[in-house]
Amino acid sequence: MKDEYDVIVIGGGSSGAGTARDCAMRGLKTILLERNDFGSGTAGACAGMISGGVKYLNEPEMVAMCTKEVVYLQKIAKHIVFRLPIITAILNEIDLKARTSGKTDYSKHTAERGASPIMLLSTEEARKIEPKLSDKILLAAYLDEMFIDPFRLCMLNALSAKNHGADVRNYTEVIDVIREGDRVKGVKVRDKKTGEIEEIYGKFVANCSGPWVGKISKMAGINQPLRLNKGSHVVFDRRITGTAVICRALDGRSAYLFPHFDTTILGTTAWDIFGNPDDAETSYDDVEYLISSMEVAVPSLREARVIRTFCGVRPMLPEWWISEDDATRNFVLVDHEERDGVKGYVSFEGGKLVIYRIMAEKMTDLICQKLGVEAEVRTHIEPLPGAEGEVDIELWAEEYNMPTHTVGRIASRHGSNTPEILKLTQENPEYKSTICRCESVTEAEIRYSLRTEFATNLGDLRRRVRLGMGPCQSTFCNFKALTVIADELNLSPEQAHKDAINFAQERWKGKCVLLRGDQVSEEELNQAIYASVANYDNLPGFWRED
Ligand SMILES: Cc1cc2nc3c(=O)[nH]c(=O)nc-3n(C[C@H](O)[C@H](O)[C@H](O)COP(=O)(O)OP(=O)(O)OC[C@H]3O[C@@H](n4cnc5c(N)ncnc54)[C@H](O)[C@@H]3O)c2cc1C
Questions:
Q1: Are 450 and 310 in a shared domain?
Q2: Together in a domain, 441 and 528
Q3: Which end of the chain is more exposed for a tag (fewer CB within 10 A), N or C?
Q4: Ligand 1 close to Cβ of residue 386 (< 6 A)
């Protein structure tokens, strides 16, 4: 038998990458397996709000846990955490009651994470802060919350796991679970790049595959249904408002509008789904529901330019006969030896991005206890890569003769590791060139990401450095970035074209549902560029086919 791992972690979302990091830091021989890219599942489809738990006021232990985790994240991931002021538009008397009960309790926790208490504002006061708010709102409540870049969070946990000795593989899909009698012994995987199939053995298999948990458990002969709940987002081409805005949606849930880097995210829907999470898509109704809900608070929203939609599936606990809004977002760590009599197999149900670290800690505690390993958790104190040191944007801009803005954008993604990227421009000054203008991504940053952050294609770069995430949605940068990838990874022209087509098809999925009015002509320009630069017309997944 080949080398045996202590732990095989399935899933490179926040919970899996976090578990791999914790296991590796405690000295366990660990392998992390992700079938696509890190953060490409639900974690990458979330809004990145690491809230102190304002939605869970009826679950005090959730508020306490979220608050504690936000405090840790502000330290261990400080370079990818940012604060947003939020104005909650109160639309009527019923809303007023719902929005203000529990305000004092929540405010008790806000100081712990350096946030302001919840404050009530008159309509005029609120409109002074955010002039795009409707003058028809009754009142407003002000608070602030922290946000995080979910893609980088997952990748940095995977990178940290690797730095602590773990084997870390993306594009490696678990296609079967190896079970002998009452024990899970390992997994069978397929390398999606080479097609190679391999068996990997371990003392523990940790199923951290979010909404796919049930699918993996089925491979182990275990029935584990979750409540799968789809959430969609709409992305606008700029920061529409200066603050985040929350208001009651048309069906009584909450809708939010978050300025997010150079764009704005409007979310989210919540529909239970019963099919394959891979088939979840944003519908025309999702888009209309969200815009119609938020335009009551921000009337100009309908005129704004929508550039994309995306959706993900929440892996919720299998609780039924309560609305999604009232269902807990807490998690359950399942020891399948206890629940199903199957040894060597553990999994998560439920959870949220904000509590990924404590989820990972509890899973690693359980595995250590079963293996008889005594090792203290350190994930709450040891910084993730880039959060170790201080950031001095102006000093670095001067030292490497680069614009402060560009260095600032690099630092917002790489923190104290920024000089590692800037150094690349000393030997190769041409690496200073900007590849993605919308998000200010330089060639140096792309090369760094390809060399050190497990990135191998345009989609990975989108998640690492926001390439193509801005207003032009990669119309002008994908071919430029591709030449850098091809050079760095020595790709053949066929491989490079394949990547460009995959990327365009993936982007098309998020755009096709919202094409109307001026967006049709914008997309025509986009498609004309594909057709004239690389003959990409009449390909499946492009609009002439749909
Ligand atoms: C619309 C929406 C908004 C949200 N907003 C927030 C928010 O603002 N704040 C917050 O805290 N939470 C939020 N959440 C919840 C949060 O995103 C999820 O709870 C969390 O990200 C789940 O992470 P995970 O690692 O468990 O799952 P995932 O991120 O889905 O990771 C599971 C991984 O397993 C991989 N996988 C699946 N099958 C296999 C296989 N066979 N082999 C190998 N790998 C496999 C998948 O590719 C995937 O990457 C939101 C969720 C949604 C849907």
A1: no
A2: yes
A3: N
A4: no
Q: Could you identify the atom of ligand 1 that is nearest to the CA of residue 44?
A: 29
Of 142, 111, 78, 54, the closest CA to residue 352 belongs to 54
Q: For the segment 311-362, what is each residue's pLDDT rounded down to a tens digit?
A: 999 999 999 999 888 899 899 999 999 999 999 999 999 999 999 999 999 9
- Ligand 1 neighbourhood includes 49 CB (under 6 angstroms): yes
Range of the domain at 244: 82-145+227-314
Q: Is the CB of 351 under 6 A from ligand 1?
A: yes
Beta bridge partners of 14: none
pTM of the predicted protein model: 0.97
Tell me how far apart the terminal alpha carbons of the chain are, to the nearest angstrom. Answer: 49
pLDDT tens-digit series, residues 399-439: 999 999 999 999 999 999 999 999 999 999 999 999 999 99
Which position has the token pair 């001067």?
A: 398
Strands (E), 23-127: 30-33, 49-50, 81-90, 119-121
12 lines ligand 1 (CB under 6 A): yes
Distance 435 CA to ligand 1 centre (A): 29
Total domains present in the chain: 3
Taking the CA of residue 277 as centre, how many other CA atoms within 13 Å lie in the half-sphere pointing to its CB? 25
3-class DSSP string for 191-234: ECCCCCEEEEEEEEEEECCHHHHHHHHHHCCCCCCCEEEEEEEE
* Spatial separation of the C-alpha atoms in residues 472 and 237, rounded to whole Å: 8
Residues 200 and 250 grouped into a single domain: no
Ligand 1 and 42: CB distance under 6 A:
yes
350 and 438 fall within a common domain:
no
Ligand 1 atom nearest 18 alpha carbon: 25
